[in-house]
Amino acid sequence: IFCCTLNAIPHNGSLLSKCKVPLGLYIHPYKDIQNLTVVSSSVITRCRVCRAYLNPFVTLLSNHKWKCNLCFRVNDLPNEFVYNSNISINKRPELRNCTVEFIAPSEYMVRPPQPAVYLFMFDVSFTATSTGYLEAACRIMKEELDKLPGDSRTMIGIIAFDSSIHFFNLKPSLPQPQMLVISEVNDIFLPSPDDLLVNLQESKELVLSLLDQLPNLFDSSRNVHSATGAAMQAGYKLLMPTGGRITVFQVSLPNFGPGALKMREDPNQRAAATKEIPQLVPATDFYKKLALDCCSHQICIDLFSLATQYADLSSLSCVSKYSAGCIYYYCNYHRTNSAISMKFESEFRRYLSRSLGLEAVMRIRCTRGLSIHTFYGNFFVRSTDLLALPNINPDTSFGMQVSIEESLSDLKLACFQAALLYTNTKGERRIRVHTLAIPIVASPDQIYRSLDCRLIVNLLSKMAVDRTLTASIGDAREALLNAIIDTTKAFKAHIRSSQKSEVILPSSLKLLPLYILGLLKHTAFRLGTSTSLDARTFALHQFNTLPVKTALLTIYPALYALHDLDKNEPIRTASGIVPNPPQLPLSWEKIYKNGIYLLDAGTIIFIWIGKAVDPRLLNELFDKDNFLSLPDTYMISLPELNNALSSSVRKFVNTLRLSRPICPPLYIIREDSRFRKEFSQNFVNDRTEATMSYFEFMVHVQKQLI
């Protein structure tokens, strides 16, 4: 939930600089927690100076005093908190748990708690409706409507857009939904402001009726225009009084009205030798300005892009980035593409039903002498340490860098505290507090032993995203390479090694070169013309928001041999006993034609079937007699067969899927499938026409050290 790239903090900035390792924090503040400790005390104990919350790392000085672990101020305990060394520590949850949630009293509210307000906006241009997405989205919404988080105050609205904005009056007294069309999109107004957002309970039947009718209303339209910007402006005006969440489904490039965009992609100049991609910079500040307006009124905009062609995500993504929203991308979505359709359905169902925090702010505090800077994620920075989050969801994470401004030599612990103030969908104001304490050390050896390679790679990826968008992709790639070289040089200087021909890294970072190579080959940072601008933009966005485990799998996927599934002892998990196969290096040298392999790339899972596979395995796993009887495209699910291997593989796949918030789609492909390239591009260890192998990369790094 809350962790640091170093598990030991250098006692001064000079030591950190000498070790050449990045110091930063990762936080997943609203993560789903099964046994979250909730404190309902009428008094929330906080430091009078820095406003830190009482936590397990404060010092209790007497029955009536406590010393803050961040600013070291001595504070009075409240009257209801009478400290007794025998029993109070066990009774006070804020002194026992690093993560607690307080039910906030009225002084933490600037207005009555916001209700859950949902506004759905559908692209109904000809390009959009021809994909079939509208039928799928409406069907899923009907099935999940009762799972939308909220209470009796929950409100909902629906808007459609092409070259006009189509509002729907859902007032419960109406016999059926009433459509109101505004064609003048350059000066948008609300035709019936009081009836476009309605109470969900009171108008539920009308909402369901509209979801039934919506696909048919526009199925004969040939309108090729998309006034996405005007629709978002209308949504902003509609939600201004309440705040809430706008969900935008966008298929066509916004080409009409405010915020109209033009085709900027030339496939021949996507990432040429110049290593500069100016099209990654937004074409207009329209969407950023709109996002900031939304943020100031507690409105979040989430974007579902189902584009069949270039959609300029570089420009559109700003509307979600600065309003604390989410971006989903389904390249070439069509109802006949079963894999992408299943991915959309799985993610949209999760999106509709997951918990939601409203009108949130998050502040990060730290021990005196440390400072936090350069935040990563989707938010608006309201002040140096305060993030404005109109919505917060359990699938989003944040990163930040930390600097050592003063000597910490007289301290034993460096502490960090994140406080998330939000309104839940039941109308309660809550404060979720996470506290992290890390020992302070003076030895480089202790620093190098304490490094968390996973979190360092995660932070480096976020820094590389920032460098790509503010400078160039070439600068970002160079910075990633320098991260290895600088750390290696510093470590070699520390141990005074004479083995100049050998690349030496601390054992804690032995996988760093492999991960950096994975980043250089990743969709976000690789060169060449095969990567579309939208795919690259989405990959860059994901690094800023994905949880660490999923992000690392997109960098260096996990490869397993399913024909050796029982090679290791199975492990016991919360869901039962599951297989624990060994992970293989990402090289074709480890792939045999008589094998079946699973590749977990974080947001997608492949099962690859070799040409010479044993027919018995095919029969037990897929109920097929031979290789050629398998589809030559792909399958998206494993048949449920009554045998041990089928049961084990399905259990293993389900375990992988359940370990992350968004269920990755499954592609089952033959060795000769035309989707082989999507599978092969994950083999980080191997050489390609444009990239080095792992061995060649290590030789290259070695030369830079001489």
Automatic annotation (TrEMBL):
Residue stretches making up the Gelsolin-like domain: 579-652
GO MF term (any one): zinc ion binding
Gene3D superfamilies: beta-sandwich domain of Sec23/24 (2.60.40.1670), Sec23/Sec24 helical domain (1.20.120.730), Severin (3.40.20.10), von Willebrand factor, type A domain (3.40.50.410), Zn-finger domain of Sec23/24 (2.30.30.380)
Subcellular location field: Cytoplasmic vesicle, COPII-coated vesicle membrane; Endoplasmic reticulum membrane; Golgi apparatus membrane
Organism domain of life: Eukaryota
Sequence ranges assigned to domain Zinc finger Sec23/Sec24-type in this UniProt record: 44-81
Domain called Sec23/Sec24 beta-sandwich: residue spans: 357-440
Membrane topology: Peripheral membrane protein
Record-level GO cellular component terms: COPII vesicle coat; endoplasmic reticulum exit site; endoplasmic reticulum membrane; Golgi membrane
UniProt keyword Lipoprotein, yes or no: no
Record domain Sec23/Sec24 trunk: where: 113-352
GO biological process: COPII-coated vesicle cargo loading; intracellular protein transport
InterPro entries in UniProt: ADF-H/Gelsolin-like_dom_sf, Beta-sandwich_Sec23_24, Gelsolin-like_dom, Gelsolin-like_dom_sf, Sec23/24_helical_dom, Sec23/24_helical_dom_sf, Sec23/24_trunk_dom, SEC23_SEC24_subfamily
Pfam families: Gelsolin, Sec23_BS, Sec23_helical, Sec23_trunk, zf-Sec23_Sec24
Domain Sec23/Sec24 helical: 452-552
UniProt key word Membrane: yes
Assigned keywords, A-Z: Cytoplasm, Cytoplasmic vesicle, Endoplasmic reticulum, ER-Golgi transport, Golgi apparatus, Membrane, Protein transport, Transport
Family designation: Belongs to the SEC23/SEC24 family. SEC24 subfamily.
Protein's recorded name: Protein transport protein Sec24B
